[in-house]
TrEMBL record:
UniProt feature coiled coil, ranges: none
GO MF term list: D-mannose binding; signaling receptor activity
Span of domain MRH: 1-137, 147-277, 280-424, 430-568, 572-712, 725-866, 868-1012, 1020-1151
Full protein name: MRH domain-containing protein
Subcellular location: Endomembrane system
The species this protein was found in: Petrolisthes manimaculis
Source superkingdom: Eukaryota
Length: 1248
């Protein structure tokens, strides 16, 4: 029976391989349909609320006589044909027909509870059914005989111990003519036969002698024959076979005699003890779709323990395990083998097998779970075998197993209250978030909420428009339907596809959102609804919206690919190059939305793997989050094993391309699982898929023939050098032409070092002969001073042959004056595209006395084709690391474990000059070892931009460094992982380790990778730290009660700083529109040292990414501007949602911060003196107060004012002193000492 639709108004009855049985009476007489007894499908549909409006199709098709047929790979077509007449299309000659398409479900996660109704188009009913019953059966293979009671299970690593079936006395087998006493793997005890070695005894009628048919001393063999285990005893004139048949439902050992003649006797034993142990389904589902996960109850080491209830059994302990066999320990000893429970006697030291792991747990109707272990040790003289029945009941608290009773048939009953018996894997979260109950990850779909515009989707068979949004209702109303989450637009009509909901359902690896109770009266009385299924895609933000699936006209289905449906994952660079210019690139094999799967049918397992990234999480691949490869047990309901995580990219090993995943689950006490994939170049391979080879020493080996493994010519290796004439060279891969003729200078350039060495040089031409007397020299050196040089020495002949290699350009002047007996002087000039504010020009880096070569680094924009971006976009904001770029100096880090090693690093840009040793030009990271005589190691070039890895943050990789000293197959690379620390400000890098593939790894805590979060409303931000000044910049002096008025584009903008311009807005227009609130502001330094003030959360603006109007104000230092005023950016003519202003002011200048500038002239009071007020309302100093040497007027006024004040104070003090008697005496004494004659007015003291 199959219900369809949410209202269950259509019911199908379907039977496979036989006609309908026990169907309702409306399906025909006896439930066999209206066409005799071959009806396989019956359907009833209620059209309205009244049962009188029913339509019944008694015969939807007859059971085919030939059974299913193979339609295509792994698809079986089961077709019910020749149903009753169908009049839907007005053609009475057509009959109903039903198609059930059956596909092999490789694991329980892919299985559907039954047929899934796909469509009912006219006279055809179509169903799909994913089931294990559709999978091909693996035939059992025979195993060689074993002479003991131990035998390997077929297709299993487990060993069968038949001694578990040994009875304490014997088993009794009765037939119509004889009675037999029999034991297994041992002799009969207290039996009728006199021989103590007897194992099979025939007991005849009374008065006749019993006959020993087999003894334990006879020739014994044990072997599998087509899944049946044969135990054979051979004597000289007789033979006894005991055949063991697997019966998983058996709770006791049933023995029958099946054959007898004068020399042969055969017995059959039906028991679960010989059933091949299987990984039990520890993840279960019930008919309601609830999932139960019992894996948390598995213990290793140790077991669950339960005590008996009777005092007479106080020495007994029950040991239990779930999802695996009981574990041995020093205290309690259980019988060997795959048993799930045992009973031990502490005093006697004995134990009994209480049942093997033979059957899967079962979910009962009351949602309790029953675990059954059967065919344990014999009891009651072999009449029964011990078994265990555990009833698991959902509880919030773990109580452990409790022994209840032992039945008369040796069934041991336990009750167990545990959270593991509660439904899991299907959970619903609110507020657009939901937590994975298995692995604990919280999925958050709120970033997909479009605050500017509703998503627009065109879909369906009729290509209608659908508006959709998440985590709240649509921004635009859907007619009068209230808070709809989806709206169908059909010309002028609007229909709600369901009310908005923020509930997210997690169902075994998939996320979904449902909108229900939309507009009614769809195709009658159906209410419209919508379902959105979210699929993990590592590379898709999801901001383009969902895709619609064609289907039902009243139920709308959407697929939404997004990174927000992914758990945390790892991604590494999937390419590398070799020293000889070969590039290996496996990016085409790395998929952000799907995995590669390889099945092992005989083991009922599959491998799931991806290349250079973690596996993509989905319902069919519930692997641990960061696994690059895992094993899914198809019998264990997607129980998976992590066989390696993604840490590093591909590499060459003996010229063979390989990729290794390490640090998987624990394999044994000393090792974890890892995966090694070998890639073989095959340009003609059409089967682009990995092949499993073997497993050895905890490593899984795969081989993959693929065109992607074939090398190409690399464009990013240091050996890839191109040359050009006339001081020009082009990048052959992009076509960009570098031209350094603009650097050629008539008189040349002069550089020097700290040791009195001067070097005159020119670019692509000779140095002026007055500075370099030699003929044709492009560079020459001398010692002494610039004005009084010593003798000149040519350092190389000029040429215009410019060379290009990724990372820098260079000129090489050779053939200079003789340096020593073997070499002549040369000059190597490297032209580097440095940081934006680097000082351009040549720098003498190093004088290599051994090579007689001068190394010059020349930083110039002429060497720039493009600089990599130093920002990265997350799904919610842009993280800008350009403030970390250094244009002078570099970040220096000492290796904490090797103090003689020092790292030099820059961010996104090449290193700045390091005088004294020669790091590779253009490199962004370099390692110098003071104890090594070799050149510093190049740790990589800044060729790749920043990467944002979900849940891991921002990463930067520098590639194509020097050859790895420990393994020349690798190029050195650098990986910097930036970690958010709001208190770290810029922070600094810390060296962590070197990976096996020669990658130097650093961690850098900085506030610049912290995403914007909602901060408490603290009012306007007016101060910011100025690191160079070691002080704060305060914008408070710029605040005006009336604000600043700026006219632009026909609008009047009112602006203020540190206070509102109107209401609570920092910027607004004359019509009242807010362009940002003062309590939603941000003050940051830009990389070019300008100060940026941002006001957020202005009025709604649908065209903005944030959904609100925003203002950017850039403050630029200008000591001549006074406080200045804001000026509108011309870009505002083309944008509606942002206001951009530039403000030149002395407030942000270093001089003002230190107090050396004149800020007083910018006050209103001071403006009446040396300043004047302009129309815009800003106060600027009078230009006449500027000094002739270009000094600022504010500095001069400050000095003059100070001198006047000090002189005035001295003058007043002198007057007071002269008027006093003491003062007059002091003056007279001074006059006499220095011989100065004074005026008569100063001699009053003499006549007093």
């Amino acid at each position: 029976m199959l219900h369809t639709g949410t209202d269950h108004k259509r019911v199908y009855y379907i039977s496979l391989c036989h006609p309908l049985r026990n169907a309702p009476s409306y399906c025909g007489s006896g439930g066999n349909g209206g066409n005799g007894s071959t009806t396989g499908v019956c359907m009833k549909r209620v059209l309205g609320g009244d049962a009188q409006d029913e339509v019944t199709i008694i015969n939807g098709g007859q059971v085919p006589s030939t059974g299913p047929r193979l339609a295509q790979s792994e698809w079986l077509a089961y077709v019910y044909d020749n149903g009753e007449a169908c009049t839907v299309n007005g053609n009475n000659n057509e009959t109903y027909k039903t198609f059930v398409n059956i596909r092999c479900a490789r694991n329980e996660a892919e299985e559907t509870p039954g047929p899934v109704h796909m469509t009912s188009a006219g006279c055809h009913f179509v169903f799909a059914w994913m089931t294990k019953a559709g999978c091909p059966i693996q035939k059992d293979q025979s195993t060689p005989p074993s002479p003991t009671c131990l035998a390997k299970f077929p297709n299993s690593d487990h060993t069968l111990n038949l001694h578990a079936l040994h009875a304490s006395n014997y088993y009794r087998v009765r037939t119509h003519d004889l009675e037999y006493e029999l034991n297994i793997c041992g002799a009969i005890t207290n039996g009728t036969c006199r021989d103590a070695n007897t194992t099979v005894c025939a007991v005849g009628a009374k008065g006749t002698e019993p006959v020993a048919l087999a003894t334990i001393t006879a020739t014994t063999s044990l072997e599998w024959r087509d899944s049946i285990l044969f135990l054979t005893y051979k004597a000289q004139n007789s033979k006894v076979d005991i055949q063991f048949h697997c019966d998983r439902q058996s709770t006791q050992n049933n023995i029958y005699r099946v054959e007898k003649n004068s020399t042969y006797t055969g017995f059959t034993v039906r028991t679960s003890a010989v059933c091949t142990p299987e990984a039990l389904q520890c993840v279960l589902s019930d008919r309601y779709g609830n999932i139960y996960d019992l894996r948390s109850l598995w213990k290793s080491p140790g077991n669950w323990e339960a005590l008996p209830t009777l005092s007479s059994d106080e020495d007994m302990v029950y040991l239990i395990n779930v999802c695996g066999q009981v574990n041995s320990n020093a205290t309690f000893s259980c019988p060997a083998g795959p048993i799930g429970a045992c009973q031990t006697d502490i005093r006697k030291g004995t134990s009994y097998n209480l049942g093997f792991l033979t059957t899967d747990p079962v979910v009962n109707e009351d949602q309790s779970i029953t675990i059954l272990y059967t065919s344990g040790d014999a009891c009651q003289d072999g009449k029964h075998s011990r078994s265990t029945r555990i009833n698991l009941i959902c509880s919030k608290t773990e109580h452990g197993p409790i022994f209840i009773t032992k039945t008369g048939t040796c069934d041991y009953i336990f009750k167990w209250l545990t959270p593991a018996a509660c439904p899991r894997h299907v959970t619903t979260g609110s507020d657009c978030q939901v937590k994975d109950p298995l692995y604990g990850n919280t999925y958050d779909l709120k970033p997909l909420r479009n605050v500017a515009n509703d998503y627009s989707v065109i879909g369906g068979f009729d290509q209608k428009q659908y508006l959709i949004n998440l985590c709240g209702p649509l921004l635009n109303p859907c007619g009068s339907e209230g808070k709809a989450g989806l709206c169908q637009i059909d010309e002028s009509q609007k229909f709600s596809g369901g009310l908005a909901s923020s509930d997210v359902t997690f169902r075994d690896g998939s996320l979904s959102v449902k909108y229900e109770n939309g507009t009614g009266n769809c195709q009658g009385s159906t209410t419209r609804s919508s379902t959105i299924v979210f699929l993990c895609n590592h590379d898709e933000s999801g901001q383009d919206g969902p895709e619609m699936l064609p289907g039902d006209e009243c139920v709308f289905n959407f697929i939404w690919q997004t990174i927000h449906a992914c758990p945390p994952f790892h991604v590494v660079d999937c390419s590398f190059s070799t020293a000889d210019g070969q590039l290996y690139d496996l990016k085409s094999l790395s998929s952000p939305y799907t995995n590669k799967e390889y099945y092992l049918p005989h083991a009922n397992k599959k491998f799931v793997l991806n290349i250079c990234r973690s596996v993509v999480h989905s319902k069919s691949s519930r692997c641990p989050y960061t696994a690059g490869a895992c094993i899914v047990d198809l019998d264990g309901k997607n129980e998976s094993i992590n066989i390696g995580e993604v840490h590093t990219g591909p590499y060459l090993d003996d010229d063979i391309l390989k990729l290794k995943y390490t640090h998987g689950n624990k394999c044994n006490e000393t090792h974890t699982y890892q995966t090694l994939i070998t890639f073989l170049c095959n340009k003609n391979s059409s089967n682009d898929y990995p092949h499993y080879i073997t497993e050895e020493s905890c490593t899984y080996f795969f081989e993959w023939e693929t065109p992607a493994a074939c090398p190409k010519e690399a464009s990013g290796t240091s050996s890839s050098i191109h040359s050009g004439e006339n001081c020009r060279v082009n990048n052959t891969h992009t076509g960009y032409v570098f031209d350094l003729n603009i650097l050629k200078h008539e008189t040349g350039y002069e550089v020097h070092d700290d040791h009195d060495l001067h070097l005159n040089l020119n670019v692509c031409g000779e140095v002026d002969k007055t500075k370099c007397p030699g003929e044709g020299s492009g560079a020459c050196s001398h010692t002494g001073t610039h004005d009084k040089p010593s003798s000149f020495m040519s350092a190389g002949k000029a040429n215009a042959k410019l060379h290009y290699t990724p990372g820098f350009l260079f000129l090489y002047y050779t053939g200079g004056d003789q340096c020593n007996s073997t070499a002549s002087r040369s000059t190597f000039i490297s032209f580097i595209c440095g940081a934006e504010n680097v000082t351009e020009g040549p720098v003498l880096i190093h004088d290599d006395l051994d090579k007689c070569t001068y190394f010059v680094n020349w930083y110039t924009s002429a060497a720039c084709e493009r600089r990599i971006d130093c920002f990265v976009d997350t799904w919610t904001s842009r993280l800008d690391l350009s403030p970390l770029i250094r244009s002078t100096g570099n970040y220096e880090i000492i290796n904490p474990s090797k103090h003689k090693e020092k790292f030099y690093i820059n961010v996104c840009r090449p290193l700045n000059p390091i005088i004294g040793f020669n790091c590779q030009p253009g490199s962004a990271a370099c390692l110098y070892n003071s104890s090594s005589v070799g050149e510093p190691l190049n740790l990589g070039y800044p060729a790749v931009g920043l990467v944002y890895v979900y849940e891991e943050g921002v990463k930067m990789m520098y590639t194509h460094g020097s050859k790895c000293p420990t393994n020349p197959n690798y190029d050195i690379s650098t990986m910097i992982s930036f970690v958010c620390n709001k208190s770290a400000e810029k922070g600094k890098p810390v060296f962590k380790e070197v990976s096996h593939d020669c990658q130097y790894q650093f961690e850098w805590e900085t506030s610049h990778v912290c995403e914007h979060t909602e901060e408490p409303e603290l009012g306007p931000i007016c101060q910011i730290r100025y690191d160079d000044a070691k002080a704060n910049v305060d914008l408070k002096p710029l605040q005006r009660p009336e604000g600043y008025n700026v006219s632009f584009g026909g609008k009047e903008y009112k602006i203020n700083v540190c206070g509102p311009a109107c209401n609570q807005s920092g910027v607004c227009t004359s019509d009242g529109a807010s362009f940002g609130l003062i309590n939603k502001s941000e003050l940051l330094w830009e990389y070019n040292k300008s100060l940026k003030l941002t006001y957020y959360n202005g009025d709604i603006c649908p065209y903005s990414l944030s959904g609100h109007k925003t203002t950017f104000i850039y403050f630029e230092c200008d000591m001549n501007a006074g406080y200045g005023k804001p000026v509108a950016d011309e870009l505002m003519a083309d944008i509606d949602c942002k206001a951009i202003f530039h403000w030149k002011t002395n407030i942000t200048c270093l001089e003002s911060i230190y107090g050396n500038g004149d800020t007083s002239v910018t006050t209103e009071k001071a403006s009446t003196g040396n300043g004047k007020e302009e129309a815009g309302g800003d106060i600027v100093p009078d230009k006449q107060t500027s000094d002739s040497d270009g000094g600022t007027s504010s500095t001069m006024i400050t000095v003059v004012a100070s001198v006047i004040v000090v002189c005035g104070l001295i003058f007043v003090a002198v007057l007071i002193l002269f008027k006093s008697v003491r003062g007059q005496r002091f003056v007279s004494a001074a006059r006499r000492i220095i011989g100065v004659k004074g005026h008569a007015t100063l001699l009053l003291d003499d006549v007093s």
